[in-house]
């Protein structure tokens, strides 16, 4: 019989304890799907630029901003991801209780599922668009969501502060601007801020998903989908116009290679890929 080393035994014990915790805590009860393992593939926290970091995973982005007067977290991944997100925050030398705001990109389980637990464990204020807030408070998809047919739910958030397109949130030395980017959901919100190193500043965009994903029976060409397609058009315009030096997307592979994209024109390319995908989808529906 082969004995476990002390390190292996500690890792096994930690895994067992985490599994027991997730089974007992309703707010981090795992949601398991076909891509869960890929989405939550572990990665170490990474500095992006200046006071901005990534504390998420291989297939789901979560960003952290150090404002000098507290931290801002963007997105919460899946419910079971919350403990790992906070552990990454600690690994950067920060304390989770210093997180003052949690910003939400969209009311879907893979980006908002962990927000309820993160808000409870940090005491942070959750911020979303008005339609996004409805989804977070309900913990389920909106009736007009193209993915509504998939069903499912996630832990509802107890309280949400709303913010509208082009309004700003100020904390410490950081101002975050809300950018409405509807289409993927009508409540989708992207976020823009500047991070600086010495005299060099770069504008960072954390973009909500723009891919036209839906159940097979959904029709983007239907009259009822007109607000959705109009929303996509507004989002393309917003992404084309906004200053954008570094792009982070909710799913990193949607933005390009790596965990973020710092190539010129990244935001415009992000919008163009969505536009082409939507055009192709609508053509296929017409035929």
Describe the structure.
Helices cover 32% and strands 21% of the residues. It is globular, with a radius of gyration of 19 Å. The protein has helices at residues 6-24, 36-39, 82-91, 109-112, 115-122, 130-138, 226-241, 266-286, and strands at residues 46-49, 52-54, 63-66, 71-74, 99-103, 125-128, 160-162, 168-171, 174-180, 189-197, 200-207, 246-249. The chain has 8 helices and 12 strands. The protein starts with 5 loop residues before the first helix and ends with a helix. The mean pLDDT is 93. The protein has one domain (32-286): Ribonuclease Z/Hydroxyacylglutathione hydrolase-like (Metallo-beta-lactamase, Chain A, 4-Layer Sandwich), CATH 3.60.15.10. It has 287 residues and is α/β, with parallel strands linked by helices. The strands form 2 sheets. Strands 1-2-3-4-5-6-7 form a 7-stranded mixed sheet. The chain has a 5-stranded mixed sheet with strand order 8-9-10-11-12.
